[in-house]
């Protein structure tokens, strides 16, 4: 068994060339920053490939984790931008003193730690309890969707602590380093791309490991896997937790690079958009998910600039098209294409039926 | 009396008031190959389901090596040393034969154990030996989903062999097999029954006669008769249930 198939290798190399060379060399700062934004969702996408594509766990609430990561980072950025003052939105909603749970976010390292731990811990506890009770499939999707909605309402309602519907914005620096200039945005872009490749590497490792095979087995026949001696709830919770962690990283990078986090990024629509990125790119392909985030993100920007009202129609249509005609997304189409070409030389026995199960 | 490995007492389960297994007692010795026969709907599959934890009994005890299996979850029962082959072959279609066997290897079954799992020479050898046993040595890289029905049955037995359970529960392993495949399977069972206990459900009397030590006849969730094949076939109650056996 080879580490990477030819198609995957091509995917990784072309992506590296685009992200490290082509985009930074050809795009103006504004466009490059847009790419950064799309790549935040790419981080989420890698996690969705693991949890959904391999573990069979469909979450319609990845915004919860994206948002948590984003808000945690925003708390730090806002505190630093406010200096000795109370953050502006607190003043506006007449919060008198900084709430105690905001205090630790003066510290950058605590903030990073919290981004790595809090969403993942929440994801693990929630999903392990739910999976242990053998609630799965559609019900789990609904649970996550409901949580995403709840969190949105909470964020909007607690304006004095969260900035309400406007979210948190107006960031300036990280430990004295100005993050608003074009130059530092460029640096952040490269940090982000390196982070993305690290996350993709971790994802690829998990998929190729024995754990990855067990996830596939669970996706297809969870009942049977228990009789192979595995606590399947634990494995599913692990996949979901890793997905949550990657989503939180995406959210944190979003706050850093876009300079704004709002409840809409937590909600149901945003969460479903994240699934669509992956569905378009291919839910069994990590590189595919990243391309999906780039392509759909780009399409979204184009549409919103030119025909803002048509975007949602286009988006819905795209989703239906992908689900019906390309169950494994762009990566699936490329795979089939290369399998067919190979089939002309060999016997063509590689054709394994595509699975369309959610 | 030989060592008992499995002792089932007073086992009962009812589905909406219908008792599929009714106050059943059964005892399996170490290294015994027991065949369970009985007409369709007799409760044979349900009995195995309860032993391996798939179905929770309404009453009764299942003692396996001093542990009460009714209190354990499926994966704990598997880890205790009970392996189950299902009536419809249940293999992992999207994985290769090799991967199917490999994930059945009974170590590193925790999350981190499997994340950092490496296929050692020892494990590789074991996989090849089992593949040879189940006549699939040339199909290691084949996806299980495209195996023939009989090959899937063998693969599932192979997955159990990887687990190396002390008690194997086999539900109609030759169903849907060609005559040649049946003969090969009889050979296979003869080989793998050494050093472990097997409970086997089967319909094919020819096949049963070839392999059984002792036979238990189930009928309407109860044990109707028990003994050697010859004894059982002479039993008037069995003849009544199985006209023309
Ligand atoms: N989960 C279930 N719910 C309701 N009835 C069941 C269930 N499982 C089995 N039964 C019933 O229990 C009886 C015994 O079934 P089973 O153990 O599969 O028989 P056998 O394997 O001997 O042919 C049948 O009448 C079957 O319909
Ligand atoms: Mg049966």
Q: Reading side by side through the largest sheet of chain A, how are the strands ordered?
A: 1-4
Q: Using the CA coordinates, give the radius of gyration of chain A.
A: 21 Å
In CATH, what is the homologous superfamily of chain B?
P-loop containing nucleotide triphosphate hydrolases
From N to C, what is the helix and strand string of chain B?
EEEHEEHEHHHHEHEHEEHH
Main-sheet strand order of chain B equals 6-7-8-3-9-10
Structural class of chain B: alpha/beta
> How many strands, what sense, and barrel or not for the largest sheet of chain B?
6 strands, mixed
Question: What's the Cα radius of gyration of chain B?
Answer: 18 Å
Task: Tell me which ligands are bound.
Answer: adenosine-5'-diphosphate, magnesium ion
- Overall geometry of chain A: globular
How many runs of DSSP E, i.e. beta strands of chain B? 10
Shape of chain B: globular
Uncertain runs of chain A with pLDDT below 50, 5 residues or more? 344-358
pLDDT under 50 segments of chain B (min length 5)?
none
Secondary structure category of chain A: mainly alpha
Strand content of chain A: under 5%
Using the 3D structure, state the CATH architecture of chain B: 3-Layer(aba) Sandwich
Instruction: Provide the β-strand percentage band of chain B.
Output: 25-35%
- The total count of helices of chain A amounts to 14
Descriptive keywords:
heterodimer; A: 358 residues; mainly alpha; two-stranded antiparallel sheet; two-stranded antiparallel ribbon; 14 helices; 2% strand; B: 245 residues; alpha/beta; Rossmann fold; six-stranded mixed beta sheet; four-stranded antiparallel beta sheet; 10 helices; 10 strands; 36% helix; binds adenosine-5'-diphosphate; binds magnesium ion
Brief write-up:
The complex is a heterodimer of chains A (358) and B (245). Chain A is mainly alpha-helical.
Q: Please, could you describe this protein's structure?
A:
The complex is a heterodimer of chains A (358) and B (245). Chain A is mostly helical and 358 residues long. Chain A has one domain. Chain A has 14 helices and 4 strands. In chain A, strands 1-4 form a two-stranded antiparallel sheet. Chain A has a two-stranded antiparallel sheet with strand order 2-3. In chain A, helix 2 packs across helix 11. The longest helix of chain A has 27 residues. The C terminus of chain A is likely disordered. Chain B is of the alpha/beta class and 245 residues long. Chain B has a 6-stranded mixed beta sheet with strand order 6-7-8-3-9-10, sandwiched between helices. In chain B, strands 2-1-4-5 form a 4-stranded antiparallel beta sheet, with helices on one face. Chain B has a single domain, classed as P-loop containing nucleotide triphosphate hydrolases (Rossmann fold, 3-Layer(aba) Sandwich), CATH 3.40.50. Chain B has 10 helices and 10 strands. In chain B, helix 5 packs across helix 6. The chains are: A mainly alpha (358), B alpha/beta (245). At the A-B interface, helix 9 and helix 10 of A face helix 2 and helix 4 of B. Bound molecules: adenosine-5'-diphosphate and magnesium ion (MG). The site of magnesium ion has 3 residues of chain B, from helix 1.
